[in-house]
Every structure is written in C-alpha cells, then in structure tokens.
C-alpha cells in the first residue's frame, strides 16, 4: 500500500484572493503535488464543511468579520500545521486600514457615502465586521508565517515541498512583507 | 591621522581590531565589515541613539549599549550578534511596526524601505504585540513633498539633516512618549513653512515612506543618500 497522502486545506478569510491566485500560479507543479497531497477543502472546490484531521491549512486573509472569526476557530481545531499565507493573514495588511476609523464610519463610507443607488448598510448576507481587522495569530496559534502580497508561486511551492519533507521552511531569503 | 589621535585596540565578535580613540563601536564594526543594524544612525549626521536597533553587548556591562552612540575603549570586548541582542532587536522592530501603520504592500517605499529590509534581515516573521492602528494626519501641503507620520519611526534623521546640513531647522519633534511626532516649524503645515528651503534632504534620509515626493506610486520612492558624507566632508573643509 502506498503511503497515505498529506491532507491539505486552504481557506480565504478577508483577503483579495491574490494568495490563492499565486497558489494556482504553481501551474504544472500542482499536478506533481497532486501525487502527494489531497486537497480536502478550499474555496476553489465545492466543499461546504471544513473537514477533520487536516495536516496543513494555508490561510489567506485577515480576521475581519465575525464569520472569519468562527471559521478560523473551526480550522484551528481541525488542523495540525496552520500556515498564515500572505501579508493579510500575518499583519491584517490592507483590511486593517479601516481600523483607525472604526466599523461605523467604514460601513457608512462603503455603503452610503459612495453609493448613488439605494444606499443602505447591509443587515443580512454580508457578515458583520468585528471592531478590528486582526492578524490570524492574534486569534489562534499559527505555526508558520509566509510573507508576501502575495507570496510568489515559487515561495508557496517551496513551503509545501519543505513541509512534505517534514522540514520547517526557512523563508528568510525568499520573501518579505509587501513582496 | 594627526599625531594627537591615539589608537585603541578592542575585539568585536572575537576579532581583534584597532581604531582611533574617537570612533564609535558602529564605525569600527563597519570598517571591519561587521554588520550592525541601524535605523536612526546615518553616516554624516550626529548619532542620537534613538532607535536602539544597534544595541550590542559589551563584556562587563550589564546594559546593552547602542553601537552608534558608544565610543570605543581600550580592551573592550563587544558582541554584536548574540541571541539576547537578536531577540531585543526583533522585539524593537515589532514595536516599531505595531506603533505606526506600516502597510508595505501599499507603501511608496515598498522594496526600498530600511525598516522593511531590516525586518527581513533580522528574521521578524510577524508582530507579536497588538497593532495600535493610529490615525495621524497626513500633510500634503508642500508643493513637492508629502509627510505621512503613520510611517514615521521617529528616527529624527530629517530633523538632524535639516538642522546640521541644510541649516534650516524646519523639522523638530513635539510631544512626549507615545505622543511624540515630527513637526515643521511651530507645528504648522509644511507648505506654509517659512524656513523650509525645499531642498529635499529630509525626504532622502528618511528610512521609510514617511517623507516622500509627490507623484510617486507604490514602490516608486527610492531614496538617494550618497550625498551626505560628501556634504559633511565639504563642511569640515576636507574636500
Ligand atoms: S519622517 Fe522619516 S526621517 Fe523623519 S523622523 Fe520620521 S522616519 Fe525619521
Ligand atoms: S542606530 Fe543606534 S540607536 Fe539607532
């Protein structure tokens, strides 16, 4: 029997999807990886429930809404190695630029002041914001930080390859905030 | 070297070095290709010891000393790269990042910033303290330059270059502690300043994107600092 595949998930909190685009930019290397990993959950697939016993989860985005908050708790509970992927997950980055203004002013700006057609602050569908957009590690324990906005496909490939080898990737020469 | 200047010997990271008695630990380290990080110190301006990134261990001294503002002494044993020093430096960086709004991805200085570069070099993977998310007013009143104090690390390079080299003393620091901030003239808009000569020296020595030229987009603001040592030499009449 072949060795069981490593169970990998990716989730997308408050980010622009750029980190996931970078992931897809691995191109044909994704096919190679498919021999070794099982992608068990990702916004790129139609799976509703975050599964149990995930080996590695890559998190894109900041914890900004109450929904983000609930989801990251669930993810942490079911993940062995949690990776903050990209600047939004690590520092709250662009989503945090609303922090100095507060929730009310931010919503008013987005849904009332800059809107001509039926301006109103949404009360359903759009998950309510928390007081601050926060880095993932401010909410749950994070095991690895991969900087970049977004991290390059090469960086992400390196991270996954090293983790598959059971090593902690050394990213000091590979990426940085804003890369 | 004038005959009155004496030479002293010391060790830095175990390496025996000789230097003029009036030199700082940082100057001697750099002459010997030993890396000491710095954010406030810059060649050509008086050291102030503001950022503390350059702290080193000196045998027999309990405190960590700023290499930029500490004169060498005979027989000194300096360590620039211990685990203790590295931990403090990372913590200082994290506090600098959390104190202002340093959002590299949308900053004019992305890729050219001394704070960002040091964070990478010293292995700051994330910021453990909560971000303060401050709101400090951006001053875009000058016709050529913008000051965004959200990105200011209070290194006072702008204050010193304006005072010591340009001789205008447009910049200064106001307030205390966490409320400290840089101001132009008597906390008036930069564009209204009577003393500012618009020379741009402050913009070029600023290590971050706090001072930048109008019209620069993300990543476009690189700074030119080579001029400083030459101006200092000229001033001292050596060139
Ligand atoms: S504006 Fe720039 S040069 Fe002036 S104190 Fe702030 S960081 Fe330093
Ligand atoms: S470089 Fe020495 S304290 Fe800033």
Summary of the model, kept short:
Chain A has six helices and seven strands; from the N terminus they run βααβββαβααββα. Chain A is an alpha/beta fold. Chain B has helices at residues 25-31, 83-99, 114-121, 157-166, 201-205, 227-235, and strands at residues 7-12, 15-20, 55-58, 65-66, 77-79, 145-147, 171-174, 181-184, 211-213.
Give your account of this protein's structure.
The complex is a heterodimer of chains A (179) and B (239). By secondary structure, chain A is α/β, with parallel strands linked by helices. Helices cover 30% and strands 21% of the residues of chain A. Chain A has helices spanning 18-24, 29-34, 66-77, 87-91, 103-113, 153-164, and strands at residues 6-12, 37-41, 54-60, 63-65, 79-85, 129-134, 144-146. In chain A, the strands form 2 sheets. Chain A has a 5-stranded parallel sheet, sandwiched between helices. The longest helix of chain A has 12 residues, at 66-77. With 239 residues, chain B is an alpha+beta fold. Chain B has 6 helices and 9 strands, in the order E-E-H-E-E-E-H-H-E-H-E-E-H-E-H. Chain B has helices at residues 25-31, 83-99, 114-121, 157-166, 201-205, 227-235, and strands at residues 7-12, 15-20, 55-58, 65-66, 77-79, 145-147, 171-174, 181-184, 211-213. In chain B, a hairpin with a 6-residue loop joins strand 7 and strand 8 (181-184). Chain B is globular, with a radius of gyration of 19 Å. The model of chain B has no long low-confidence stretch (mean pLDDT 95). Classes of the chains: A alpha/beta (179), B alpha+beta (239). Chain A binds chain B through residues 84, 87, 90-94, 96-97, 99-101, 132, 135, 137-138, 142, 145, 147, 149, 171-172, 176-178, and chain B through 97, 101-107, 110-111, 116-117, 119-120, 123, 125-128, 130-131, 133-135.
């Amino acid at each position: 029997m072949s060795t069981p595949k490593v169970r990998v998930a990716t989730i997308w909190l408050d980010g622009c999807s750029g980190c996931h685009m970078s992931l897809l930019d691995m191109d044909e290397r994704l096919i190679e990886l498919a021999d070794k990993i099982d992608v068990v959950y990702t916004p790129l697939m139609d799976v509703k429930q975050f599964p149990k016993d995930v080996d590695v989860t890559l998190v894109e985005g900041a914890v900004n809404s109450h929904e983000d908050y609930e989801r990251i708790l669930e993810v942490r509970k079911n993940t062995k190695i949690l990776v903050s992927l990209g600047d939004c997950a690590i520092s709250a980055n662009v989503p945090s630029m609303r922090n100095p203004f507060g929730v009310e002013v931010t919503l008013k700006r987005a849904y009332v002041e800059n809107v001509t057609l039926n301006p109103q602050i949404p009360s359903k569908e759009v998950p309510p914001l928390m007081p601050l957009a926060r880095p993932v590690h401010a909410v749950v324990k994070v095991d690895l930080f991969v900087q970049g906005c977004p991290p390059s496909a090469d960086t992400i490939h390196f991270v996954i390859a090293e983790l598959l080898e059971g090593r902690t990737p050394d990213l000091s020469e590979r990426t940085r905030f804003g890369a | 070297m004038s005959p009155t200047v004496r030479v002293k010997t010391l060790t830095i990271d175990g390496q025996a070095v000789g230097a003029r008695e009036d030199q700082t630990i940082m100057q001697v380290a750099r002459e010997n290709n030993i890396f000491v990080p710095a954010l406030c110190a810059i060649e050509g301006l008086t050291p102030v010891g503001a950022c503390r990134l350059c702290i080193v261990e000196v045998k027999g001294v309990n405190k960590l000393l700023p290499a930029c503002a500490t004169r060498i002494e005979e027989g000194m044993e300096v360590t620039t790269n211990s685990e203790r020093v590295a931990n403090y430096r990372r913590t200082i960086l994290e506090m600098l990042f959390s104190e202002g709004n340093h959002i590299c991805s949308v900053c004019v200085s992305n890729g050219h910033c001394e704070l960002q570069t040091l964070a990478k070099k010293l292995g700051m993977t994330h910021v453990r303290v909560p971000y303060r998310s401050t709101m400090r007013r951006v001053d875009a009143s000058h016709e050529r330059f913008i000051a965004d104090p959200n990105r200011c690390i209070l290194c006072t390079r702008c204050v010193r270059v304006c005072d010591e080299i340009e001789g205008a003393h447009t910049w200064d620091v106001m307030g205390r502690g966490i409320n400290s901030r840089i101001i132009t003239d008597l906390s008036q808009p930069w564009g209204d300043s009577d003393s500012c000569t618009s020379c741009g020296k402050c913009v070029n020595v600023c290590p971050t994107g706090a001072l930048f030229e109008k019209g620069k987009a993300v990543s476009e603001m690189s700074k030119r600092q080579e001029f400083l040592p030459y101006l200092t030499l000229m001033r001292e009449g050596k060139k």
